[in-house]
Structure formats: structure tokens, C-alpha cells
Amino acid sequence: YPSLDAHTDRTIYGDPVTDKIVFHFGSELSYPHKLTYNKAFIQYNWGYYAGGSNEQPGSNAEGPASKMITRDRWYMLAAPLKKMASGDFALGGYPITWQSLYNAPHPSTGALVEGDFSTPFSSNDIDLSTKNNALAVKVACYNSNIGYNDQRHLEGLQGILEIPYFENSTMADYHPGHVYNKIRKESRFYYFDEKTLQQLSSPIGTLSRGDEAYRFVFEDENTNKAPNIVVNGVTVPGYTHRVTSGTSNNKTVMIGNPFMATINSRLFFEANRTKLKEDAGYYMLTPTNQVWSRYEYKTENKVPALQAIVITLAEGLTSADLVYPLEGTYALTEVSNQTRSVTSLSDDSGNSLYIRATDSTNKTSDYAILKAEETTASSGISKMIYPSSHSVTEAFIVSSDQEYNLIDFYNEKRTEVGLGIKSSNQKDVLTLEFENVESFKSATGFSPVLIDKYLNIEQDLSSNNVYRFNQRKTESERQYSDVNRFSLRLSSATSGIIDEPNSEDLIRVTYLTSQLEVSSEQGLNQIDVYDLQGRHMHTSGKLAGAPISYSKYLPLNQGVYIVKVKTSLGNTVAKKINAK
Known about the structure:
Elements lengths: L19 E4 L15 E7 L29 E4 L18 E7 L9 E2 L1 E5 L13 E6 L12 H5 L3 E4 L14 E4 L4 E7 L6 E10 L19 E4 L2 E11 L7 E5 L5 E3 H7 L10 E5 L4 E5 L6 E2 L4 E5 L6 E7 L7 E2 L18 E6 L9 E4 L9 E2 L1 E2 L8 E5 L5 E6 L6 E7 L7 E6 L1 H8 L1 E7 L4 E4 L5 E4 L11 E12 L15 E5 L2 E5 L4 E8 L4 E4 L9 E5 L5 E9 L4 E8 L1
Parallel strand pairs: 1-2, 5-25, 23-27
Antiparallel strand pairs: 2-8, 3-7, 4-6, 4-7, 9-10, 10-11, 12-13, 13-20, 14-19, 15-18, 15-21, 16-17, 22-23, 22-29, 24-27, 26-27, 26-28, 28-33, 29-32, 30-31, 30-33, 34-35, 35-38, 36-37, 36-39, 39-40
């Protein structure tokens, strides 16, 4: 993972120069616009069988520690070179490969948002730069069917597709559906019958391409250098790409990382703040279980080289000129191949309630999030599902207007929040897990209780945050979703807690002239103040060092309030105070 930034020594050999540069799958080059080169090659690695017939290939031409793309799963790929074609990923049926575009039609009422790759390329000669430098590819695993049982072409390539290949005679036999005319500088693509794998003489697709096909997509075609772009009023080298969502209902777009380098997602958002919907985040389809995972625009969340993502355009936009600065405050590329794990919370999870569903094999989808902050500005972020991943258990929130959301917002008038479960697995025991319960409870003043209406069970999540159940029968027409069984009842955190007048020796609470004073010889852990409607008026948060006294200037409107005090020994007592 070399970097050509300012720290690269140029005093002895000058600027970095090479004739050819080959990017093996998983490799990166930060500050790529600093490199002078003649030709660039990139590789995609699916592994190979070498005579074996296991489900996934076990041989790796790059060594066992190198990355491989999962077979028989859709993988979102970026196309960072110019003049890459949809047909470059076809192998004449040995094995069959599928190349498609992202599709997310507007959902019907009472349905989850489906995001999939059901839009095939209309032909093999489509320039991928016209499709946001992105596509989805699926490569067949070995089995006994035609198109799967003979993988001679990918085996001959040892699982690695190197692009450009069209002038490489040693690779020509493995691309039988492609012929290159050196005089006309034109690629011709042929098709085959999927039932027999017989090559067809008609139709024929054509794409003109020459030396420009060895150049990075971000370069100016005349200078072979990164052009200057304006980012928030500052001129820097970079790349501008126009993307279009197509309709006002569907504002999601799949885009490919245009660099052979990791992109900092936070800086990408900041450079395009007015063009992207921040709270929607971005999505990637996890290849292993084919589940959409949402990522927030955070510094720790990276977009690796050769990776495509799905972004959401800002309200009111159906197209936008996205900018990718290579230098300056928002320089995107960095040396890192780390991405956030979708099975763990970020460090700044705040006060939101996190909900996830897991099956018996520990397959877990993304978190559904009930935000602790009240808002009327957002209608929530819709849950996006991949239609064929119904066996993976997923959770989502049913909003007050019956929308199915991945992220929704707490409202003090909303005493019950619906939960939906999507899974076709009716055999195994499934799990609902709730995280950050105490922080949510402290921030909102409401204690969440899970209601299973089917079994007539209530579970206080403050005492037990894990619930196990079997999915009841669901229908494929409703995407195997059950939206009527579970809900969260948001009970006042003061419910069941009464003033204890004889506990002065344990905890002392006074409130005079807007000054709250609390003391206890046991040491104090946390103090919370509520009104009689259960609304949260103040929290001390967790107190460090278990102090024996706490003082806070706290102006309150006239009325009676409850002060809930938790000591360092775990005792909890509620006291009434009267604000005059």
C-alpha cells in the first residue's frame, strides 16, 4: 500500500515514474495522480479450483493470504480505468458470469425497499464510465450443470481477470467472446447461448478503445493528468463525475470508487455535503450473506479500491456532479484497507437504541436504530433489503405512518414502536438483541419493554436485553416479513419507583432557589430528574469516582418533580422535589 504523498522522498530519484503498473487484487496506491506512467493494469481475483470441485475455489494465484471475491454471490465492483466494458467480465460461459446494474424501484405501500441487481446490461459493449464506473458481477461456482461444470477459461486465468487484456495474445483464448482489431482499435463482443454455450454470430457489440484504456478514469484525456476542480471554493487536483438517480422517488445511485486507493467516506461527504443525504449513509452488499449493510459517513468508515457503493442524493436532486478531491483539506485517498464491522457499534453510539436480529449460525444483519433525539424534520431512513437473502434474519422499525425503516426517531407522544422481522427461517431459534438500553433510557426517560403479541410475553429490556423466538409463518409475497408480532412499549422510567420518605439516612435530596443538592455516604453513580409525565429534565450522566455529593444549578418550572438517584453500590431511590 504505497503512498506518493509529500512524504515520498524525491531528492535522489525525482518524481515517481514507471512504464507499467499492475494492481493485484487488494493492492492500492495513495495519491495516484503523482505517478507518471505509461500503462496501468488492474486485477480482479475469484480464485480457481485447480482440479478440485469444492463449493468455493481453494486455490489462489496470489497466495493464500491474498483477497478473493466470493463466487456465486453478487459483488459490487468499481471500474477505475477508462474504456472498461461490460463484456470484459464475460468468459464465454466457461464458467457463466453475470454482469448487472443496481436497481431499486419505488416500493409499494406496506413493502420493504428492495435493492438488487435485476437490471442487466443491454449489451457487452457498454462503456462503464457511462454507468458511474460501477457494476455488479457474479461468477458461477462449480456444479454439474452446463455453464458451471466446465470452468476452463477462468481456470486458465487462475481465477484472475486482468484488465486491459484486449491486446494480450496470451489471454485471447480465455476471452473467446472478444476479438480486437488493432488497425481500427476496436473491440468486438460476441454472445453465446446459455443453454448450449454455443457462440452466436449475431449480434455483435463494438467499442472503440486504444491507449486511453490503460489510463485512470480520473485523468484528463488530453493531458493524462488529474484536472483541477473547485471544492468548497478551493481549486485542487481531482475528479468530477455526474451521477443521475433517474426518478424523484428513487434517489439511490451505485457509484464506483474511481481511484485505486481507499477513500475516506467522511471527507467524501464533506466535499459533497450539499449533494448527499447524510443520515441515509451509504450501502454495500455483503458478499457472504447478500445483505445490505449501511455505513455512516465517518472517518473510520472507508471505501476500498475496486469497491462500489450505493449513495443517496440530497432532497430535491435527481442528479449531481460529485467531486473527488486528490489534494487539499478534503483529499480522499489514504493508505488503509480497513472498513467498519457491521456486527459492532461505533464508539460514538450515543443515546440511540440499537436492535439487531441473529440466527442460530450467528448470521447477523445491520442494526436497526431508534434515535433518542426527537425530530420532526426527518421521516426516517427506509430499510433496504436484498430480495433473495430472505433466509438471513433482519430487523426493522415500523414507523407511525407504517413505513419500514432502518433508522427511526423517538417521539415522546409515541408510547409504542412497532418492530418488524424478515426471515423465511421458521425452524431455528432466532434472537433479538437490544444494545445501549441504559443510555437510551437515560436520554429519553423511557424504559423500553419488548412486547411479543403472538405469545403474549412482555420483557423489560433493562433487565434482559436478549429475546429468543421462532419465526411464525410468513409469506414470500410480503418478503417473509412479520410486522404485527413485536413492538416496543416505551414506559416512563419513573414507573414503579416511589418516593421513600424513610431513606434520608441513605440519600439526601434538596432543591432550593433552583439549586439541586444530592448526597449519599454510599457514593453517587447517576442522578436523573423527571417531571410527573415521565419527561427527562436532567441527567448527570455516570459520575466518575463515586462522589458523596452532587450540586447542580437547575431552573425548573413550578411543579413536582422526581429525582432518581443511583448509588455506587447499586441502590436506586426516587425522591420528590417541589419547585416553587
